[in-house]
Amino acid sequence: MNAGARRCLASLGRWEVLLLVVLIALILYGSTVSPVFLSSRNFANLISAIIEVAIMSLPMALIIIAGEIDLSVESMVGLSTSILGYLYAAGVPMELAIVVVLIVGALGGLLNGILVTRMGLPSLVVTLGTLALYRGLALVVLESRGISSFPTWFTTFGFGSVPGLPIPWPFVLYLGLAAILAVVLHGTWIGREIYAIGKNQAASRFSGVRVARIKLWLFVLSGTVAALAGVILTARMASARADVGIGLTLVVVTIVLLGGVDIFGGRGTIPGVVLAFFTLAVLGNALRLTNVSSDIQSIVVGLLLIVSVVIPTLARRVKEAYDRAQGGRRVPTGSVGGPGEVASP
User: Fold this and answer.
1) Residue 210 lies in a domain
2) Is it the case that residue 4 has pLDDT exceeding 70?
């Protein structure tokens, strides 16, 4: 097989290409089950349905690539919503209340980062603890009350679309954040160090990478973006409640892993995560249009999470077995042989 054919097969084997094929198939399926599926209004609806988890999945991807995880994001959504509603009900201008909420999100992420990087605690345990902590704080702040009657400009941001286009305003924000993080991850030294940390933390530290500092800032970013998602959810619902966001972490992690991010770290792309968001959004919308119950939809999300972990793991094991088999048949460099018989070092 020539080099061009091998490159073609390698490209076709990429996870992102597979996701694109699945996404196209789902779009074709959706167009057959409902006449409104391809309408501009339905496009806005399917995007808005999970835009908050899509936004949170972007920094979560960076954290998992670095070998950590943040399970507290859904509780930060509830806490930010509660604080936003409480401050607005107390007479604080909405603009100032949003700034305060984002600062709280950053501080929550900072707490996670300090416990993980300075005290050496596992991020799984730490963020499980803050998952309960932030939800408890949300209930203390707002109790069982619901706050509504927000400013028109605020709810318009949650409900409205770009003039003349079927594109919700939060989706514009999502695209901007995705573009920024894609450039950082794939085009800067910060991204290279994030990948290096996920592949081998000890080697990265000996190479001069500031492992603790990078992880700390990733948790701060995750907390801030989760608070931003809480603001968007409040605007979209036109209501603030302490119990919102329950169960969102599962969907966030599903999007990230479905996007090709390795749960063990060191591998993944932002374009893959974006494709996974669209895939899950289209799938959920098609299921709703066919009147599939929410229970069945939860089963589908769980199966997608399992599949997104199992398939890359099996592929990695097959590749490792193939590499071992090829290693046993290598011809030493310098021996006589035809083209391709001398293995690369």
Assistant:
1) yes
2) no
Give the lowest-confidence range in 115-129, 238-252, 288-302. 288-302
Count CB neighbours of 69 within 10 A: 22
234 near 37, Cβ under 8 Å? no
> 49 pLDDT exceeds 80?
yes
In a domain? residue 82: yes
**Is residue 336 domain-resident?**
no
Per the domain annotation, does 313 fall within a domain?
Answer: yes
For residue 275, give the CATH number of its domain.
1.10.3470
Digit-coded pLDDT (tens) for 174-214? 999 999 999 999 999 999 999 999 999 999 999 899 999 99
Domain count for the chain, please give it.
Answer: 1
The pTM score is 0.87
Give me the domain span that covers residue 66. Answer: 14-317
pLDDT in tens, 97-117: 999 999 999 999 999 999 999
